[in-house]
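User: Can you model how zinc ion sits in this protein?
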Amino acid sequence: MDVTSKLVRLFQVEKQIRGLRSRLDSAERFLAEQTRELAALDAKRSTVENQVKSLAVTASDSEGEMKRLDARIASIREQMNTAQTNKQYQAFLVEVNNFKTDRDKAETAALEAMAKVEEARKQLEELQKAREQRDQVRKVAAAERDTRHQEIQTRLNELEGQRQGLAQNVPPEAMTMLTMLLKSRGEEAMAPVQVHDRKRHEYTCGACQMSIPIEAVSALLSKGSLTKCVSCQCILFLDEEATRALQPPAARSAKR
Ligand SMILES: [Zn+2]
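Assistant: Here's the modeled complex, given as structure tokens:
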């Protein structure tokens, strides 16, 4: 078997492996996405939980301040009852009013903080719901990934065994070339020659569509020589369709 035919067989197994892997890869990607979303929800939840804690501290501090001011006001009121002069009485009254203003401020702050705590708690409930839903999706995604993995594992092992066997028969430099091309071009590492007009020698590369000289096509047809497209550098081969199109008309009708 010539080198190009060996490469084609290997390339076809490689494509099957990639096809199987891509189904698994998409399941893996979906699962990773769900895991990320879940982590984002957890981070959000922990932020809101911290907000609740600090708001609760604010509320409790303001309530403490209110109690302290209430006690102050009560004590001044008692002193007012014992005021000796109107002037003294008025001074106490001013003091009481000042404390009352402060007390109102503390009360407003406490109420605001408590309202915010309430809001944040609602947000936490919603986050919890969203988390449960996302976790369900993630579980389904994980099961799907496992199923796909199991489905393809046997076939993948088979194909990998085949690939190894076929690779052993490919000359080292051709193997290196294919490996590099697979890395850089994936499934366009190799491409079939497209025969447009045999008589006019119109041939193009199946990957980049640029024309291929007749000498290259002849070398492929006669010896299966290792041939690269001069434009895109992929390894060219003749598929069944091209081989049939390249046969002289007489041979074609004789085969029928
Ligand atoms: Zn090309």
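A couple of observations from the model: The longest strand covers residues 190-197. The two ends are 25 Å apart (CA to CA).
User: Helpful, thanks.
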